[in-house]
Batch of 2 targets.
Target 1
Amino acid sequence: MEKEKITLPIGNNKALVFEADPANKEEQDFAKLCKEVSATQPQSLQDFFTRLNDLQQKRTPEPIRKMGRKM
């Protein structure tokens, strides 16, 4: 299966290209985060990754269901 190319503009003359597998949910979720960060128009790679890190920290992980014995 062919990967989807996602171009993320950085500043005026740079861009990141991310290739995401359409069948992989984790890659699609990451691509969505990258698009959100890119929409804020970061001016440098450092700014992009700083914003991406901040966004990832704000997201709470999905709760993990604990399996236990029922009495």
Note: Residues 20 and 31 are 7 Å apart (CA to CA).
Target 2
Amino acid sequence: MKTVPPLEERLRDAYRAAADAWGPSTTPPLRPPVWNPRRRRGLAPVAAIVCVIVIAVAAVAIDKAHHRSARPADTPSPSLTSPGTPTRGPLPARPGRPRFMAVASSEPDELRIRDTGSGAVTARLAPPRGDTFEDVAVAGDDRTFIVTTRAVDPRTSQVRISVHRLRLSDDGTVKEYTSLPRLGYSTVLADLDMAVSPDGTKIAFVVYKAHPDKARTLLENGLMNIGRIEVVTIATGERRTWSTPYMSKIGSLSWAGSTLAFTFTRLASGAHQPDPGLGVTAVGAMQIRALDTGAPGDSPPAATVLLSRPDSTGLTDVARLLPDGRSLITNAGHPTILRQYSVRTGRPIRDLAKAPTTRDDPTGPDVQWVGLTADTTGRHLLAVSSTGDLVHLDLAGRKTAPLPSDKPDQDNLPSAW
């Protein structure tokens, strides 16, 4: 088969050939500007050069367009990435807080990157075709985010979770947005949680499998499942699993070194309770537990109990173990208040913030805290209320301040910084 030179090489040869046609021998002597019909013949070499340049530009544009259209449809792409406020060069440093935060919304379904100082949207991303955003977490560099998307498999009705990595440039625009197919998994429940280890090498996921009891209501089918924790190494895809033998609710994953903390509540079906109208109920106290991911063992019930709250249902609580491992923050037992506890004693240290009461309907349910993340220093927390308010908690300065948000009225607003 005859080898065809690359496009750039063919264009270069054509350009040189046209240029060779123009030289001293073809250059007419200088004359006064007198019109002569035959003078137009002298413009032929110039026209050839212009023609070649135009063809070259058009060919390169067509070649690039061809490569764009040839990209697989299921390849995650920041196709909706567009700066909310144009930036030129790195943004100024934001002392006292992370520079960027990522917030996922369902209406519209997109992931927004914001400058935490100005509130400017530096990038917008759409999920892969057919997926919706599920969760977002950040590594320790404030530039690398792990994003999960979900889609329901029509053949099995299971939820398929895909994992993607997002890297930002210094101006907050998208530097890389790629899929990590080896890290994906399937689950029967979409109410999931995720956390990236401080060094950015591992991800912890919550995964559920169906409970064999089929005599359940629609609500119970959504919650009454057997939960487990999976820790996967990003570079190799190697997984380690901690599972439970009974129905449970697991959430609020957070890391302190190799220690993974989480909320754990054992659940029971209302059909097995004295009052069938109870629906889903908690069995025992909601606990915040911790696993040493480097130690042997594969059972969350065997994990260390950091805090136990018998006055909590365990279904809507949030919690966060701070990076130093000495204290944790939760709203368990008091859903409208974030409170700091000592890990060593289990006693409360102080109240941090009350959920903003900005709901339009005063007769509606109380506004609660539904999301909580911390930066790598553990000083700055990003809290989310049930009405979409974002709040910055500065633990060292003992200050709270609102963060820019479009405030979608949804129960959970996945976010991280």
Note: The chain has three helices and 24 strands.
